[in-house]
Amino acid sequence: MGSTSDGDGASGSQWALILGASSGTGAAIAEAVARRPGLDVFGVHRGRYAESAARMKETVREAGRRAELWQADASTPESAEAGVEALRRVAGPRSVKLFVHSIAGASVGHFLSQGEDRLHSRRIRRTFDTMAHSFVYWAQALVAADLLAPEARLLGLQNPLDETHLSNTGLISASKAALEMYVRYLAMELGPLGHRVNLLKFGTVMTPALRHVYSPEALARLETMHSRMNPAGRMCTLDEVARFVTVLAGEDAAWFNGATIDFTGGMTLKLLDLVLNP
Ligand SMILES: NC(=O)c1ccc[n+]([C@@H]2O[C@H](COP(=O)([O-])OP(=O)(O)OC[C@H]3O[C@@H](n4cnc5c(N)ncnc54)[C@H](OP(=O)(O)O)[C@@H]3O)[C@@H](O)[C@H]2O)c1
């Protein structure tokens, strides 16, 4: 476990710690923040997306920044401590400007199902560890190691499933609700130290997580439906989300704290219209 090499840690540069940096949203954010505001990247992943991890690393380096990948299951307090220790070895003290929680590892199913998709206790624990509790574990480890830079930004990611029901995603929504509360309470605890903790809510974007869950036909339908749902008439892109994170990492976003920032582009506004006036 752990693929970093010891660095000098004294370059004076600032870092983005990104959980889930090898794919989808996390990889796009890593590449974007390397360009602006120009952060080095410490990315955590389990190694299932070796190609896109290598691509992300290359892009970050092309932007003139360092990229270190740490391979581990990020969902436990032990891995948070080990990962932060690995980060401490390559980064300088108080150098983590941005922490983004972008891991997707959740069970779908139904709570009362008697079949294979039953959301039994192990799935519930695992989903909450991955999607919610790990945000706290890593925040605790960063503070304990005194790695947060002045006015650091901590960011969780949310989807619009807190506003609307989607058959088998109840456990995801429950864990995201916990994440939202963690964000608010950490904002209260870290605010006096100058740090900011927020939740960025955005609509569906095409990532490997989605391609894993849906068939090509279902994906095509998803795209069509989103074009009808979103006032902009198309799906949001990963690039749009990632570029907005560069804004959140900047000076002008410093007053956001404890917020759930709605970047859904009005994705759920037309649901009733679509049902009643198809
Ligand atoms: N996609 C969307 O439409 C959308 C919309 C709104 C919000 N979001 C949120 O954005 C976040 C990222 O989703 P995504 O769609 O970008 O997912 P994704 O493309 O599947 O990427 C997930 C990343 O997390 C890593 N990962 C998963 N479980 C891990 C674990 N236990 N430990 C370490 N790394 C782990 C994956 O690599 P390994 O599997 O190799 O570990 C991968 O790098 C999620 O919180 C999701 O809820 C997504």
Automatic annotation (TrEMBL):
Domain of life: Bacteria
UniProt GO MF annotations: oxidoreductase activity
The keyword Oxidoreductase is assigned to this record: yes
InterPro entries: NAD(P)-bd_dom_sf, SDR_DHRS6-like, SDR_fam
UniProt keyword terms in alphabetical order: Oxidoreductase
CDD domains: SDR_c
Family: Belongs to the short-chain dehydrogenases/reductases (SDR) family.
UniProt-recorded name of the protein: SDR family oxidoreductase
